[in-house]
Amino acid sequence: MDTTDRTLDELRAALAAALPFHAAFDGWSEAALEQASAEVGVPLATARLAFPGGAVDMIDAWFADVDRIMAEALPPERLAAMKIRARITALVLARLETVDPHREALRRALAILAMPQNVAAGTRLGWRAADAMWHLAGDISTDFSHYTKRATLGAVYGCTLLALLDDESEGFADTRAFLDRRIADIMRIEQVKARLKPDPDRHFSPLRFLGRLRYPVR
C-alpha cells in the first residue's frame, strides 16, 4: 500500500511495529519516531499526526500491536482445546514473547506510564490488556466478576512484566515460573468465589414462597 493511501489508523499500526526497535535507544521520543517514520517511509510531520499525545500515544499503539500479535498467535480454535488456566497462561506468555526482544523499550515505556501524570493512561492500558486476554479466553461474565477478573489479571500481568525485565534465565524460565504461581493464585481466587457465590435455591424468595402457596409441592 502506498503510504499516501494509508489512514491514520493504518499509519499508526505500521509505526507501532517499528517504534520499539528505536525506543530502546532513543526512548519514546521524537528521535525514535523520526527513525520509525523513515523505516515506514512517511514524512516525520505525517507520523506526528498519528501520535498527537506524544510518548503515551506511541506506547498505546505498541501495546495495541501486542494485542494484535497475541490474538493472531492464539486463534479461538486453538484456545478452545485448552482449559481456562492453560488459556490464560498461553495468552500472557504470547505477550511476554512479543515484548521480550524489546526489554529496554518496555522498561522505558513502563517508566513513562508510572509518572503521576500518566498513571490513568497506564491503568487504562493494563485494563485493556487484561480485558483482551479474558475475552480471548472466552469469558462472557457481565456481573461483578467481570471487573474482578480483569483487575486481578491486570495486576498479575503488570508484575510479570516487571519480573521479565530483570530475568536473565534461559528463555525467561524464571518469569514463566513466576507467572505459573500467579496464575495458580488467580485460579484459587476464582474457585473460592465460586464456592461463596450465593445459591438462590438456599435463600428465601418471597416470589417462590407465594408460588408454592398457590401451587403446593406434591
UniProtKB/TrEMBL annotation:
The lineage of its organism: Bacteria, Pseudomonadati, Pseudomonadota, Alphaproteobacteria, Sphingomonadales. It holds the Pfam family COQ9. One of its GO terms (molecular function) is lipid binding. GO terms for biological process: ubiquinone biosynthetic process. It comes from the Bacteria. This is Ubiquinone biosynthesis protein COQ9. The keyword Ligase does not apply. Membrane-associated protein that warps the membrane surface to access and bind aromatic isoprenes with high specificity, including ubiquinone (CoQ) isoprene intermediates and presents them directly to COQ7, therefore facilitating the COQ7-mediated hydroxylase step. Participates in the biosynthesis of coenzyme Q, also named ubiquinone, an essential lipid-soluble electron transporter for aerobic cellular respiration. Belongs to the COQ9 family. Keywords: Lipid-binding, Transit peptide, Ubiquinone, Ubiquinone biosynthesis. Pathway: Cofactor biosynthesis; ubiquinone biosynthesis. Coiled coil: none annotated. Residues 121-190 form the COQ9 C-terminal domain. InterPro entries: COQ9_C (IPR013718), Ubiq_biosynth_COQ9 (IPR012762).
